[in-house]
Amino acid sequence: MNALKPSFSTPRVALFSGNYNYLRDGANQALNRLVDYLERQHVAVRVYSPTAPVAAFAHSGEVVSVPSISIPRRREYRFALGLPRAVREDLAAFRPTLFHLSAPDLLGYKALKLAQAWNIPAVASVHTRFETYFRYYGFGWAERAAIGYLKKFYGQCAQIYAPTDSMAQVLREEGMNRDIRIWSRGIDSQLFHPAKRDESWRQAHGIGPADVVVTLVGRLVLEKGLAVFADTIAAARAKGANPKVLVVGDGPERAWFAERLPGAAFTGFQQGADLARAYASSDIFFNPSTTETFGNVTLEAMASGLPTLCARATGSMSLVNHGVTGYLCENLDVAEYADCLTRLISDAGLRRGLGAAARGRSLIYNWDRILSDVLANYREVLGLPAPALRPEGLQSDDLAVAV
């Protein structure tokens, strides 16, 4: 069916996602940014994804709903049932020249096979370390088999995109693909800003002026390192520290997490200006997750001027400069986490210095410049010449402090 691959001077991109707009997460925020950028560059793009009756947010681009079912035990997520005839007909009418696969699920697998049948190149972006999830739900024995499947899936793509150098190195070591590129993430440095700190908001959540707030932001699921977070807070308190804990987010483990963190303030899900205020009204950001490929929440915290305490794992290793913008600890070493956390809690000057450096570091992550690289990769795959693109510069008046 080579006739479906017409000649165009710009790509026509079919993007396949397991969750484009029905539940907000870091992966679909990056994909929405990409679609918005592509459309501003006059690139035709069409998204194929499971949907819900009510979207979680106003999405970018045109979305074609793919049949799906709720996932057992995690009903907030949906599992796409492949590419039925109606969706394939829609794809044929769209006449894509490139398939972009954002998840190695059944939808991504079927799309990959269709791309091969139609002689259309496929690229893939890696957003989550799916293979690590098994260890949090009692199926650690399945991790090697999952890696084997991922090698077969990603190995058939023309290029794959990792969000950080540390994640790219893991993919290279596992032999996922010979052509691994970096698709980093950006930050709105005016939305996420230290000036958004709000003392009255802190007071409304039971936080006093002298309280040191340790914050976790994200989905409340086991793979985000919730047990390590709770154990570290307990260990820090045993050492004499008295942090106030703020949890921003929601999920199936909220009740369990709240029981482990007596006295913590839970805000529920936040977004936009409300989320930016929550970050800036905190004092320390703690992210012990080892499943991140990038760590959008860590970058948002850095832009908000917070010192960060994170796992020495993919994502965080490429964002956090140990001892300069925050601290990196061994993945399950609660004692090391507690030592670093108590040091931060007890030293306001240290928090200010690391937070200022984190803010400066965050400013190098500019969305338009990053996304122009993705489009350049598309054009390279398709053998198209690179146009003279002019991405916007850094969106901040404190560019001079970027490091």
Question: What features would you describe in this structure?
Answer:
By secondary structure, the chain is of the alpha/beta class. It has 2 domains: 2-185 and 366-382, Glycogen Phosphorylase B (Rossmann fold, 3-Layer(aba) Sandwich); 194-362, 3-Layer(aba) Sandwich (Rossmann fold), CATH 3.40.50. Helices cover 37% and strands 17% of the residues. The chain is built from 14 helices and 15 strands. The strands form 3 sheets. Strands 3-2-1-6-7-8-9 form a 7-stranded parallel beta sheet, with helices on both faces. Helix 1 packs across helix 14 (367-382), helix 7 crosses helix 12 and helix 10 crosses helix 13 (348-362). The longest helix has 16 residues, at 367-382. It is elongated and about 65 Å long. The N and C termini lie far apart (50 Å). The model is unreliable at 389-403 (pLDDT under 50).
Topology:
Layout (H helix, E strand, L loop, with lengths): L11 E5 L9 H15 L3 E6 L12 E4 L2 E4 L2 E7 L4 H10 L3 E4 L4 H12 L4 E4 L17 H13 L3 E4 L2 H9 L6 E3 L16 H6 L8 E5 L8 H13 L5 E5 L5 H7 L4 E4 L3 H9 L3 E4 L8 H8 L4 E4 L4 H4 L6 E4 L4 H13 L1 H15 L4 H16 L21
Parallel strand pairs: 1-2, 1-6, 2-3, 6-7, 7-8, 8-9, 10-11, 10-13, 11-12, 13-14, 14-15
Antiparallel strand pairs: 4-5
Helix pairs in contact: 1-14, 7-12, 10-13
Largest sheet: 7 strands, parallel
Range of helix content: 25-40%
Architecture per CATH nomenclature, i.e. the level-2 architecture of the largest domain: 3-Layer(aba) Sandwich
Radius of gyration: 21 Å
CATH fold topology of the largest domain: Rossmann fold
Main structural class:
alpha/beta
Secondary-structure element order, N to C? EHEEEEHEHEHEHEHEHEHEHEHEHEHHH
Q: How many separate helices?
A: 14
Uncertain segments of ≥5 residues (pLDDT<50)? 389-403
Strand content: 15-25%
Q: Which strands sit side by side, in order, in the main sheet?
A: 3-2-1-6-7-8-9
Relevant CATH superfamily of the largest domain:
Glycogen Phosphorylase B
**Beta-strand segment tally:** 15
Mean pLDDT score: 90
Oligomer: single chain
Counted up, domains total: 2
| Outline | elongated
| Spatial separation of the terminal alpha carbons | 50 Å
Q: Report the top-level CATH class of the largest domain.
A: Alpha Beta
